[in-house]
Amino acid sequence: MTHSSSNGYIFLEIPYIILQTCYIIWVFICDSMRSIITGNRKSQKQNRKLILLAVSTLFVMYMMSKYTLTPRFTFTNENVYGKCIIPNLNPFDESIKKFEWHPNKIKCDDNPTLVFVNDDGFLQYNESAVRQQHLVGVTCVYSVVSRQKGNDDYVDFGPEVKLKEPTRVTGDYFRVKCKDSSSRNVYDVMHYQIDSKTVKETRKIQSESDDKFSILILGVDAVSRLAAIRKLPKTFAYLRDEMKAFEFKGHMKVADNTFPNVVPMLTGKKAYSNELPSKDVTSVKFDSYPFVWYALAAAGYATLYSEDYADINMFNLGKAGFDRQPTDHYMRPYWRGIKKIDLLGTLINSALMGFEDQKMGLKKTSTLCYGNTPKHVLSLNHAKEFIKRYSHKLRFSFTWLNEISHDYVNFLELGDDDFKTFFQWINENGHFDNSFVVFLSDHGSRIDSIRNTYVGRIEERMPLLQIAVPRKLRDRYPSLVQNMEDNTQRLTTHFDFHETLLDIMNSKFDSSSEKPALARGISLFSPIPESRSCAQAGVPEHYCACYGSEEISVTLPVINRIATFVVDEINLLLGVHNDLCEKLSLKQIKHAEKIELGLKANGDVEFFSFRQFFEEPEKQKEERYLVLIETIPGNALLEATVLVDNHKRFRLLGEVSRTNKYGKQSHCVKEDALRLYCLCKQPPP
Asked: So where does this one cross the membrane (predicted)?
């Protein structure tokens, strides 16, 4: 399948312009040196003109790339104060499919690591790897990596210690360098472990129990629920089918990008507001923020925060970061260590990633690898080590992946097998028995071309949230299960997720009373009002993806056709028991509403682009209606939502619900789905 980049100017993007500029200047420097050596002044003068022409051309290319980007239109929801009707969209809509393709599989270095940390926590040589690489007389040293005091961006390498077996390294992250018998450098790699021994020596970690549960979170940047269905089908299905995870279909973001969406998740507060100790995020560090991991640590949890792609970390990109390490185990120094060891390679990889997205790999191995392992797998294995080292202890892990999804939406599918394997490992090794397992995101894809489609602008506002509840808790609290099941069809936000984390920490699982509709954050264990609006949930009008409804006349021709369609669909269902159930007919249409997305383009764009004068966001092609009808015989009152596509074809959205009691009318059938509609031909015995 052919494809293009998100803005249509793949080779004009800034990373490529930098590479092109460096290459051209290098060529001219070499040519100038030759001219000086040969004394060719004419050639020198010609080269200066060519350099000026090249730089001018590149400047024009840069300006074209900057001002011919796909315009980013802005929208406002006109129904922010009305009851939220959850969008029900096709994940495989044609408008989205054209932006998606299958990237090449990740290919990493074949060579295994020369050292590893064994199951007992000791660093040792990998003798088989030494033999495989035909190395002789290998000697290695290691140095522990530490954050510079009060600095989240720079790390120091400690004194080099000669590796002797077995060796227990104190610290989570360390650099290993090896030489062979001829003193040739053959290895320089960052390694990690989970040094739980040191943590356990400094404070008591509480054990899991029948009412104290661990929380294991895997977050992936910029993944909507619909994108997960498309790009992560194995992971999505495994959580849903094997771990019975709840899938929140009305989950919405509350701000634009990662930071202001994750802050409500982890603090329950609105980012950049007076609710937090400081609105200044560029110079004031985040140590004073009320992150949930601080409360969990005080409650006896071991804590982990891990985030890859360190250059764009949510608390560091244009922000002050942390003064002290925020959690017991904090992976940022690992990634900063990699960059310190190989600064040029790290920068080049960022540029080459765009070529790889276009299936134009310029390296033998993928830019998504570090050595012989994909970087997202390193993060997953890091989380697994944490889970293992604190087995049966209270654990809070927050593992966040950026690189596989942030810039190039199609890379996401490369993680599907690994994500599924990660959750499968948690489930099959008993860690799910006493743990809530969460798979989530901050927002959907923010690629401009996708966001300008009708479906894309909705799913960008509706991130993924799946929560798997420990089986013994499901059995013990049926009301919790029912509330969570109901809430999968309600408007939910990151504020609600935070309240849920607090309920887990405080063992509040039996919450059957409905919270006030005006509460901004409502635990997902509690009933969330069906009438909830974006305003009540803390979702600004710019990010509200809810539909609104308007009552319309029941005499409209389209409503009559829809009502007839609904009756025909019900009769099709009853067809398997036409010997038992009466065929239904339409008696009257009692009520009708037109359902429309309140999100309307307001005429503005987020940045200037010449293309804004020639393009406009895709408009809604489909129509949705809600009808309440009465059928005979039996006088059933039935409510249905029907989609009318751009070809005037009808499709039911969800099930047809019955709004009056059916008593013993359906005594002759056992299927719950049919009991709502069947009027038995024979009276009850």
From this structure: 6-29, 50-69
